[in-house]
UniProtKB/TrEMBL annotation:
Residues 1-21 form the signal peptide. This is DUF7282 domain-containing protein. Keywords: Signal. It comes from Salinimicrobium profundisediminis. PROSITE patterns: PROKAR_LIPOPROTEIN. Pfam families: DUF7282 (PF23951). Residues 42-151, 161-272, 284-393 form the DUF7282 domain.
Amino acid sequence: MKLKKFYLLMLPMILSLGLVACSDDDDGGVDPDLPPTGAIVVDEQVTVQDGTLTINSVNISEDGWVVIHRDNNGAPVVPGIISVPKQIDDGPTTNVTIELKDGEQVQNGETLWVMLHVDNGESGVYEFDTVNGVDAPVTDLQGDIVTVPFTVVVEGDDVLLTAADQDLVNGVVYVESITLEEDGYVVIHESNDAGDGPQVPEIISQPVYLEAGAYANVGVPLKEDGTVEAGDVLWVMLHEDTGEEGVYEFDGENGLDSPLTKDGDIVVTPITINDVTEAPMSGMLTVNDQPIVDNTITVESINVDMDGWVVVHATNEAGDGPQVPEIISEPVYLEAGDNTDVVVTFEEDANVAAGDTVWVMLHDDTGVEEVYEFDNMNGLDLPLFDDDGIIVTPITLE
């Protein structure tokens, strides 16, 4: 899985040249009227080994701290930290090594947050508690806290699966964390007749193919004919990929795509479905005929109920709709809510020209989070619907 790096709004050069101002007497000090600010660069996945992890780089306009917070529903837990506060000098610092506190354990696929704090209380003593007003988080020029999430990879844990009891919403089971040493699958089995294990070989979900790596919040859609009720126990299981690559073939007899084992035990975990609800994901799309500019088009406005995608499909051979599942653009990830002036880039081999009709379409995001997987067969990242059908708009390129 490719690693992405997050850059928080300001380049280190800006910090080093523009955010430190000289006082009136030109003594080189920091302008007391300029609030401290900074930036963080960190890989999407960070390996933890023997309770230690490394952040690519940080940059802060005055002396401060780097700390690690846990995650709570997409935001850092404050004021508590799980790391030993790392004191840093003003300016850029690369390869920042941070130790977890004694007794703090993290899991593969867990989300953590690295955050910058000032050191404006007792020098060299980390005192942030949200009440005393000292050692508060650093903010950027827009007033946002300088903090970045990342996914944990625990060194030595080659195969791990974590899933919790949950409500089943729109037929998708969410798996908290998965780590695979080799490519494989995550699937859902229903309980056997005795109620003490999974019913095999049958699965009631789409098999979600995963390349080797660590994953968090993987959405596994159930098959359309799967019947699940509140109180049912389902079994989340990892399988190998030993037959045709990317094709799930486990049938209990052919020896292909067998359940993964660790220390002789099948990697499987039961979860209880607390409730079954429907909250159909829908959206709205506004886009007009327009010229191609630098191999891109711009979608004026998009609103989606949940995170998803906007993509562009070519016209099918009949000329009456989109060609699916192929797309001719880079998929653009959308966060839930309003998205305006969304720039969509055509693939280099799209071969689009003035006069062509293309189809701008919205898709959901199931399977691996923020990875576009729609192939019209695996049940992942499907087109979104409203009362009139698939949310898609044809436009003519000028």
